[in-house]
Amino acid sequence: MNILIIGGGGVVGQKLAAKLADNGTLRGQPISKLTLADINDPASVAASFPVETTTCNIADADSVAQVVTADTDVIYLLAAIVSAHAEEDFDAGWQINMMGTMHVLERARALGTKPVVVFTSSIAVFGGEVPDPIIDHTFLNPQTSYGAQKAVGELLINDYSRKGFIDGRGFRLPTISVRPGKPNRAASSFMSSILREPLNGQSANCPVDGDFLHYYLSPRKCVENLIKGAEIPEDDLGQNRCMMMPGRMWSVRELIDAMTAVAGPEPAKLITWDAQPDIQAIVKGWRFDLRPEKAIKLGLEADGSFEDNIRYYLEDDKPAA
Asked: Which residues carry out catalysis?
């Protein structure tokens, strides 16, 4: 089993690589090779099988052709520029998020090998004037360029699968929290930083009110679901290959309460509450009453509580003192 992770330098890509290395198998077969590709050469992971790292610019079809090869069995397509960045730089968003997806799928079609393609979409594909609750067959109505780019990607995954060019499956990720590392340019970045930085003894600002509701999943569960998602039999996916990944909805206040329950009262004292209208304009356009029934039936899971998300960060990612 030869696996390629495009976006292998990111938080989810690195954690996915490490988990695959621990497991040693995917889709019932031993992993023979793992390649991590990203715009900058990603860090490697220790494994009992060969692991290669390389650069890849998915906006460049020739670059994609160098990493998607005839012996690639499974492609994890994680690479993207994030929401606020895509909103600020319209051209880059479409070149990377939409054309990058097209380049990967076209390369697979040209090879004729029908690889499994696991595509990470976003709950940002929903929004606007659609009724609650959001179910698996609610029509896509994104209210940001990023959401529109991901919606196009979902349509491509479905069509290329229908034609037999790939065995595609797409998962609309909840906001992944608590993410390790530094804040990025995603509009949702604060949903980790208001927890991560205080847990690390640093201050952080919350740009929305405490009653702001959102849909969350831990990095640990996200990786587990991406592995399960690759292993779903093609016949079980049905005609729509894209679905919501399970998560749970909590308010910002509930996130902070969970942090306090696990880590005590001191971290919450490091949070400031300065409103940021530009961030509010993006995140308040996202829809939150999500019912991921299809993914749950297929065996994917949400976290049991946000206290679990906090514990996972402390166990997996908190820097040593």
From this structure: 146
